[in-house]
Amino acid sequence: MTRDEQRQLLARACAGDLEPGEAACLLDACRSDPQLLAELSHLTVLDRLLAHEHLYPDDGAFVREVRARLADNAALRTVGPWRRGSWLPGWAWAAAAALVLSLAGWGLKRPGAPEARIVRVESATWETGQTAPRIGDALDTRRLQLAGGLVELKFDLGATVIVEGPADFEVLGPQHAFLHQGRVVTRMAPGTKGFILDSPRGRLIDQGTEFGVSVGPSGDTEVHVLEGKVDAVPGNQQKPVHLSVNQAARLTSQRIEQFEADAGEFITDLPPLSTGATGFLHWSFDEGAGEVSVNRGRGLGVPGARAIRRTYPEGGAGPRWIAGQFGAGLAFDGRETFMECEFPGIPGGEPRTVAFWVKVPRDSSIDEGYGIINWGTNKPGLAWQISVNPNAAEGPLGRLRLGVHRSFVVGTTDLRDDRWHHCAVVMYGGHRPDAGTHILLYLDGELEPAARKAVGEIRTQITGPEAHNMWLGRNLGYVSVEQRNALGRFFRGALDEVFVFNATLDQEQIRSLMKYNQLGPPPSLTSATR
Do residues 219 and 301 make contact, with C-beta atoms less than 8 angstroms apart? Predict the structure, then answer.
């Protein structure tokens, strides 16, 4: 490759016009030509400095940074060529190239450190041909094509990124990534800033913050600022937009649209890893007759706590005993039958997992979906209710739903098929726990994508005059015969093997419940695999 050809490739890389074959050619040339590698590194770093100068022309940071780096003789490290057009207008690159070729080498990262590392994986599935990374894997300029689930990355220079599948995400450097499609949330460590996230429609520059980004199939990009500030630099040479907390912008090929941020669009944390013993209640309904089912769990609630067959108004026969998924189960008529459990529920924002088998009739109506399992107080944030969604205004009908009164998350799979399905609803505490960002739904052992969400803090109230014990099959909001509930008073369908845990279960544990009706395989199966 001639010197003129090298310069042409550098210029095209800076302009974002490289074809894939040209990018591979440039990288091969950089491996054997230290001078070319140095020039590409200079241009990469200069792009960041000029971005700051363009956005903040009066604070002198550009000049100070250039002087500091001229005095730094650290080893070079390239962060890779741009995958899309630079934020700079084309005319600026001629002057930038003339300046950068006269500068000394700049250290871009700690020697020997990986660009990023996998720190958590939750229910992840990968696109065909993608080698599944493992926790602890180092990532240097690697593309991740996630079909579903969640992956958390820690970048060398301080950023934590949660990638929510399906997504196509590329690591470009220790403080630089490209989101081709999908959703991510980026959070900076205290006192750090400057993470760059590129997308098909522009560049997002962190200013010490937390922000969510989604990229659709067309490449249009949304950024939602959850904390701090972000600078959105469109790729079509429009002026950058400075966004603060609770502000959002949509970058298209033609314009930038600003609107209010929606934190419920994103998973902002992964469930905490379980530590210590897990307490749980378990009503198996295997009695198959009589008025009660006894709690077979341990470490939570009262040992032997009963689930009692009820009707409202009183006087009826209660739910009907039937064959369940494991042993016996219970059928609820949707008119008056329910179970009342001798357990008030898990309070506040404490972690919890509720798992059960459910069968919903094909002809289930909108007034027969509420109240599969619930506890708490029927006020905003104080309730906890799992249902078959009966409210079309809040998501598709017949899907698994968790509601905490005016805030909710609704799944995508229609349960109305008269078949048994294993369901699990996981809620974890931590950073800003709410229904939109800290709830995971599992259906038949797989993470269930959310069709609709509405943000609301979870602070379940289990004491006071309006609170009651845990109900199965009755709408939490139905407390009076005179009360009218347009969307239903009772659940119609069947239940079996109801578990309530005081911890966050992971996918492996949920699948164990589904297969073996316990948190681990039976001893006989464990012995057989040795």
Answer: no
